[in-house]
Amino acid sequence: MKISEIGGEFELIKRLTDKEVRDPDIIKGIGDDCAVLRYTKEKYLLITTDMMVEDDHFSIKWHTPFQIGMKLMEINVSDIISMGGSPKYAFISLSIKKDTTVEFMEELYRGIYESAKKHNILILGGDTTHGTEYTLNLTLLGEVDKQLLRLRSMAKVNDLICVTGNLGGSTAGLKLLLKNKKGNLTKYLEPKSRTEKEGKIIAKYANAMIDVSDGLSSEVKHICDESSMGAEIYSERIPLSKTTIESSDSLNLDPYDFALYGGEDFELVFTIPKENIEKLKKEFSDFNVVGRILEKKNGICLLKDNKKLEPGKGFDHFA
Amino acid sequence: MKISEIGGEFELIKRLTDKEVRDPDIIKGIGDDCAVLRYTKEKYLLITTDMMVEDDHFSIKWHTPFQIGMKLMEINVSDIISMGGSPKYAFISLSIKKDTTVEFMEELYRGIYESAKKHNILILGGDTTHGTEYTLNLTLLGEVDKQLLRLRSMAKVNDLICVTGNLGGSTAGLKLLLKNKKGNLTKYLEPKSRTEKEGKIIAKYANAMIDVSDGLSSEVKHICDESSMGAEIYSERIPLSKTTIESSDSLNLDPYDFALYGGEDFELVFTIPKENIEKLKKEFSDFNVVGRILEKKNGICLLKDNKKLEPGKGFDHFA
Q: What's the rounded Cα separation, in Å, for the pair B234 and A16?
């Protein structure tokens, strides 16, 4: 049977993995950006792992090895930050091609260490092997103050849905490259995680949090699924950068689609009680309100051009 | 520059990674089977990661998906056991081919869970993506009683070098497959880690410990390097199974070479003070003495047919 026949490998893995694990040391297993384990009196241990494959997550035509190394670290850091945590220790597995040069590896590691140093991460182990394409895996351990842990499941009715920075820039860059057009590629070639400090400030005031790896639409769905909630997203309020709008103009595509269904922006999506918005703004202001958490019965919808778009009817969760 | 020009990627990674990490929470970073971190009052946290690539670590011509899944778990478990630890939590990253069937994935996960259940491991996360070949990565967390932690660096002069079970069976199976010959393939197709219970019993009496992933010769060298010691290995005392000898006869090859330079046997190599041998035998007897730890100035040598073979002269560390 083809994997597509049962809804893709996301659904398949869900079926194949045992979600019901009973262990008092496990605060959260499968189903969030990180697993959460009991650790010290004040802290939980966080663990995340992300794999990048050549010509899927990067291309040696477009990315320098330095950029590939940096991306490997940043996408994992983002998972720790989105839980309210601090990244700590990295374990790197590489499958490299037989003709890989020393210079390529030096640049790859320079990118890895550049990001590691920025986020105070130590590299403590790994594995290196051979393949016919580059495959890179990073496992990152981190810790989080117990009271700062923010799960996808913590959203509450009437929370405002907010997003840091702006969205769609990574997808805009990818589309430009695919069409051989000029424009700003930085957000695609060098995605950056938000910092530990920013994540912790937001965590103080927010309920649920997640990072944008698959697009705003998908991230809001994850929060709603895990919190048993519904949501409305205000399309026109999704923040876009000037360069993303320029890119989408030159491509003749809708930049809001990049933000909703594109992904790899690694901004933070969080839900926050209305009364905490002003408090947060005093400490961190680079965010916008893009929606609201509703009761589950309302489902998830997109408000665009004064119309309410439902899933499958102008609005897709995973388009 | 080619990686081979600077001594292979093992040497390259050594150069590229920062071995001098200063952090009071790190008991051991790069350079052992697992990283060792501060954890609870009585225990350390262990972390290991291993990557398997199609046509390098397994072949879908020879291995069933069930066997591939089991191997992925067992090779990581073996790293935890060899530190005196208990495996606990696994994180699995898979890069799968586009035409992968549901049935293949079900069998792969059945193998993963079969081994996980045997060793009391819970699967808490992972990542699934696409590639043109199968690449599988597993990160395994475990814990170890502080007094049972056994590092490669703990060998002492005059310790006896011992090995559990028998060696060379995995390489014998691989060679048979490569030559299209019949014989016992189980040790190659279904490598098994020693159990947590066995590892802990040995850890009570042993000084240094490591598992056989690259062959006895290489593992003894790792222990000597990390402990600043030399060693002599008694070739004729290396335990071989009847089927390994049969296979080597039919291949017209030396079975001791399989044991010394083959690898993937996942038996335990440990160094133990002579006076502890009898105590260990009362609790666990499936081991043989195959050598002795010497002072560093003696280097590492192999005693074979009453001759002393030095590295590069009849004896290679990584042949």
A: 47
